[in-house]
C-alpha cells in the first residue's frame, strides 16, 4: 500500500507503534488524548507502553505472521527507536503507511549513510571518514590531528559502540575492539556546547521546530536539557533552520531529533550537526510542560496525517533525566511546586536505565 | 481493610477506577504519566477508558465476584461518577481503600443529604425543601414565591430528573412526572453567574483549590468554562475557601467539583453553593492546559496518597465542550494555534453526548 495520496486518520483509528519503551508510552498517552487508539508491537514482555495501549503484540520484529496481523490491525505505523530492522520496516510499508518512511530510517540507522546524506544536503558536519581497515583508520587519524572518536556505523547509543582515540598508537586496539569493520571515525570537535533541536514535519510538508535546547551528558547519557540555550539569536535561528532543512531533504513525516555542537564564540559561533534520531527525542521531553503541544502530540499529529500544532514555548524549563536509583527521589520531587514528574512505569531500576524525568518550569525569561 | 494509617502507593502500583468514560480515560492518562497502572471496572463494552488501562474488568457494579477480583488486583479504588451504588462502594471499602470515601459518595449522590450536610457545615445555599408529598410541595412553593426547581434526590445529571415550576398550578403535574416521592424543591435563584471551583484534598489534609471558573450551559449541559471568571477578588477567594471547607468537613481525599451561583452585584456579590460532585469535574478540564498540574494528575496524586501539586494557573483559558456533532470540527480546531483538542475516543457521536473538548489558551491577563 503506498502512502500517496497521504492517508489521514480519523479519531478512533489506530496508530501502530514499533517498540514499547518510555517513548512509546508517552506517544500512547498523547494519542489517547487526541481520541486515537494505539497498538504496540514489541518483543519484550512487560514493556512500559503496553499499559496504555488498547492492544499490544508480544512478538519478534522478524515474525512475519505477527507483522502481517499488526499491519492489518492498524492505520499507520510509527516507531519509537531507530534500530527497527530494515526488512521489518519494508515488510510493513508494503501493507500500511510507515511514518517516518523507511528511507529516513535507513539513513539514520547507519552513521556513515547519515553523514553522507547530511553532507550532500549541504549541512555542516564535523570531519568524518569511513573506516573498514586499519589503514583507513591510520590515514583518517593523520588527517584529524591524530585524534577522533571511532564508532560503529550501526546500533550505537548512550556511548555504546564507540571508543575515543587520543593518540594514534591506540588506533589498532580501538579498531579491533569495535569489530574491525563497518566503522566511522569522527574528528574531535573542540565544542562549546552540545545542543539539539526537535522538529516535526507533516504529510503536507509543513515544518514546526521547537526552541534549541542545551544538553548536558553524564557517562554518555543525557542528564539535563535546558531551554533557553545560551546561544546567540542567530545560532538559535540557524539551528531550527537546519532541522527544517534536514526534514525536507528526507521528505520526512513525524518528529526528528537533531543533535548539534556549538563551535566557536562571539561572531565565530556556529553549528555542526552531530547526529539525527528519526523519532521523538529525550532532549524534547521538556516540551511536555513548557509548550502547549508536546513533541509526543506533534509526532502523533504528523503520523496521523493531521496538521502540526504550535511549537511555541510558554515557559523556561530544565529537563532532568532520572537514571537508575535517582528515581528514588520521586517523593521529594512531587513536593517541588514548579516540578512536573514523569515516570515510565518500569518495574526495576538498574544503573544507567532511564526511569523517568522531571521538568522544572520557570516563567519565560 | 481500613485506610488508617493512610496507604501510600509506590510507582508501578495500580489505581482501580469505577467507570470507564472520558473522566476515567483522562485519569488513566494522568496516572500513566506518573508511572502508575490503571485497572478500570465498568459494565459497558468499548468504554473509552479501557483503551488506556493496563487491565479492565467488564462486569456489573453488583457482581460481587468481579468486585472481589478487582479489589484484589488494585491498591486503591476511586471512581469517575457519583452514582456508584452504595453497596458496591461499601463492599470494596472493606477490602481496599476507596477514595474519596464512601461517606462523601453517600452525601453527594443524594441531593437532600448533600444540602443538609452543606447547611450543617455552615455553607450558604439556596433555599430547599424535602418533597415527599404533594402537600410538601405546595407548602414549599408558598415559601419560595410559587416558583422553584423540583429535582429527584438521586441520579439526576445534565438536566435529567428535574422540572422547572414557574407557577403553583403546575405543581401536581411536575410532582407526578418525577415519581411523586424522593424529591427536593430548590428555590429559584436570581443569579448573575454560574461558577465552580475544582479543588483537591490529600490524605494528610492538604488542600489545593484551582481558580474559580465561570460556566455557561446550553440545554442543561456545560458548554464553556472561562478562567478567569468575572467576579471580585473577594468572591474568587471566598469560592476557593468554601471548596476547602467542604473538603475538610467531608474528610475528603481526591478532587471535588463545587458548583455555585454568584448572586448580587458590587458590594452585594456573594456565593450560594448549588451542588457538589465527588470526582474530577467537567468544569476543571481547563486545568489540563492552563496549569502545570491538571485536575486529573491532582486526583491521581491524592488517591495515591501522594502530596498535591500546585494548583497555580499560568494562562487564561476558555474550555469548550464538543457535544454531539460539534466534534466534526476537529480538523479545524487542530489548525488553531492556541487551541488544544481533547477527544475521548467514543466510536459514535449522538446528540447531547460529550465527545471531546477544546481548551483555548491566552497569556495570563
UniProtKB/TrEMBL annotation, chains A, B:
Superkingdom of this protein's organism: Bacteria
Binding site for ATP: 111, 151, 156-162, 186-189, 194, 217, 274-275
Cellular component GO terms, alphabetical: cytosol
Name of this protein: N5-carboxyaminoimidazole ribonucleotide synthase
GO MF annotation list: 5-(carboxyamino)imidazole ribonucleotide synthase activity; ATP binding; metal ion binding; phosphoribosylaminoimidazole carboxylase activity
Subunit structure: Homodimer.
Organism of derivation: Pannonibacter tanglangensis
Reactions performed catalytically: 5-amino-1-(5-phospho-beta-D-ribosyl)imidazole + hydrogencarbonate + ATP = 5-carboxyamino-1-(5-phospho-D-ribosyl)imidazole + ADP + phosphate + 2 H(+)
Enzyme class: ligase
Annotated family: Belongs to the PurK/PurT family.
Pathway: Purine metabolism; IMP biosynthesis via de novo pathway; 5-amino-1-(5-phospho-D-ribosyl)imidazole-4-carboxylate from 5-amino-1-(5-phospho-D-ribosyl)imidazole (N5-CAIR route): step 1/2
Amino acid at each position: 500500500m503506498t502512502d500517496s495520496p497521504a492517508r489521514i486518520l480519523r479519531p478512533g483509528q489506530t496508530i501502530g507503534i514499533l517498540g514499547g519503551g518510555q517513548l512509546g508510552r508517552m506517544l500512547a498517552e498523547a494519542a489517547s488524548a487526541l481520541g486515537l487508539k494505539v497498538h504496540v508491537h514489541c518483543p519484550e514482555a512487560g514493556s512500559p507502553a503496553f499499559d496504555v495501549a488498547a492492544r499490544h503484540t508480544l512478538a519478534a520484529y522478524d515474525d512475519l505472521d505477527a507483522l502481517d496481523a499488526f499491519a492489518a490491525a492498524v492505520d499507520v505505523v510509527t516507531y519509537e527507536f531507530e534500530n527497527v530492522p530494515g526488512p521489518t520496516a519494508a515488510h510493513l510499508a508494503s501493507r500500511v503507511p510507515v511514518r517516518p518512511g523507511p528511507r529516513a530510517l535507513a539513513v539514520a540507522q547507519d552513521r556513515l549513510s547519515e553523514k553522507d546524506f547530511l553532507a550532500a544536503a549541504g549541512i555542516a558536519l564535523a570531519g568524518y571518514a569511513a573506516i573498514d581497515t586499519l589503514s583507513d583508520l591510520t590515514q583518517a587519524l593523520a588527517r584529524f590531528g591524530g585524534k577522533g572518536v571511532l564508532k560503529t556505523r550501526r546500533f550505537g547509543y548512550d556511548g555504546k559502540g564507540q571508543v575515543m582515540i587520543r593518540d594514534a598508537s591506540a588506533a589498532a586496539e580501538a579498531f579491533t575492539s569495535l569489530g574491525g569493520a563497518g566503522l566511522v571515525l569522527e574528528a574531535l570537535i573542540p565544542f562549546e556546547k552540545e545542543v539539539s533541536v526537535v522538529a516535526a514535519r507533516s504529510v503536507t510538508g509543513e515544518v514546526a521546530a521547537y526552541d534549541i535546547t542545551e544538553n548536558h551528558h553524564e557517562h554518555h547519557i543525557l542528564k539535563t536539557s535546558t531551554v533557553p540555550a545560551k546561544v546567540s539569536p542567530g545560532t538559535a535561528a540557524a539551528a531550527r533552520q537546519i532541522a527544517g532543512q534536514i526534514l525536507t531533504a528526507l521528505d520526512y513525516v513525524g518528529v526528528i531529533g537533531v543533535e548539534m555542537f556549538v563551535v566557536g564564540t562571539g561572531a565565530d559561533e556556529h553549528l555542526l550537526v552531530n547526529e539525527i534520531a528519526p523519532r521523538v527525542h529525550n532532549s524534547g521531553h521538556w516540551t511536555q510542560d513548557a509548550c502547549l503541544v508536546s513533541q509526543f502530540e506533534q509526532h502523533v499529529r504528523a503520523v496521523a496525517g493531521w496538521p502540526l500544532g504550535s511549537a511555541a514555548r510558554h515557559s523556561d524549563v530544565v529537563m532532568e533525566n532520572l537514571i537508575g536509583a535517582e528515581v528514588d527521589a520521586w517523593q521529594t520531587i512531587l513536593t517541588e511546586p514548579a516540578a512536573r514528574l514523569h515516570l515510565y512505569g518500569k518495574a526495576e531500576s538498574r544503573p544507567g536505565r532511564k526511569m523517568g524525568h522531571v521538568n522544572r518550569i520557570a516563567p519565560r525569561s
